[in-house]
Specification:
Helices cover about 45% and strands about 10% of the residues. The chain has about 240 residues and is an alpha/beta fold. Helix 10 links the parallel strand 6 and strand 7. It is globular and about 50 Å long.
């Protein structure tokens, strides 16, 4: 089920919204839209992703371990594979092996409390969406399997020509929710430093979710305005603000 060190890190269980400034100090008005990353944010898939990448690296004779994964990680898998040592002309071959090893994310599970948290945001009048570097053909079935398809109305997948931290994916989602000219009225929630860099470049509120790819210090250094241990924890703190509820 994946390297244990790639699952939710021990510090995340201890991190609470009380470690951050009070919600009323973070928000002078409720967000109109909240957009989310997928892997490591809404679904616990990092261990499964690691295993698939490890199978590829083993087949290619490339050194690979959790530390190398964190060091070279990029939402654009092509960039990450080149960093790890896969020759550009063999990327398609590597991708075919990865697809077979990942098995469409069969080992991924939804983090506890995610669906109720998204429902609370929806009931409070927020538009919700997904901005992921994940493959459309993999993530769409997962959305259906976890029962989140009807909650995440706007979806941007990894089939754009550019990937995080490039602002294009998030900018596309903001345009879809009618906030292209008002990015500060949206929040982007993700677990990797490149998620935060993209959010700050676009001008949305950047919310970090601590994970093995981004501990609180790394997320803040990349631009996170706040960090929580999980999406449900962040949602509870956000909605606790009377101006957001």
């Amino acid at each position: 089920m994946g390297d244990p060190s790639l699952r939710r890190p021990p510090h995340a269980a201890r991190l609470t919204v009380e470690d951050e400034p009070a919600t009323s100090e973070r928000y002078d008005r409720p967000m109109q839209a909240i957009l989310f990353d997928w892997d490591g944010t809404l679904v616990d898939s990092l261990g499964t992703l690691y295993d698939a990448n490890a199978a590829v690296m083993q087949a290619f004779g490339v050194p690979f371990d959790p530390d190398l994964y964190r060091t070279h990680y990029a939402p654009d898998w092509r960039l990450m594979y080149r960093r790890l040592g896969i020759a550009a002309e063999r990327l398609d071959e590597a991708n075919e092996l990865w697809l077979a090893s990942y098995d469409r994310g069969a080992g991924a599970i939804m983090f506890a409390g995610v669906k109720p948290a998204l429902r609370r945001l929806k009931r409070a009048g927020h538009r919700l969406g997904l901005v992921t570097a994940g493959d459309r053909d993999i993530v769409l079935p997962q959305l259906e399997r976890f029962g989140l398809a009807n909650l995440l109305e706007v979806r941007v997948f990894g089939d754009l020509p550019v990937h995080k931290p490039d602002p294009a994916p998030l900018s596309r989602a903001l345009a879809d929710v009618g906030l292209a000219a008002s990015p500060a009225q949206a929040a982007y929630v993700g677990d990797a430093p490149d998620d935060m860099r993209m959010a700050r470049t676009v001008g949305t509120h950047a919310v970090g979710i601590a994970s093995s790819l981004g501990d609180p210090a790394a997320l803040r250094a990349a631009g996170a305005l706040e960090v929580a241990a999980s999406v449900p924890e962040w949602v509870a703190g956000y909605l606790a603000d009377s101006s957001a509820a």
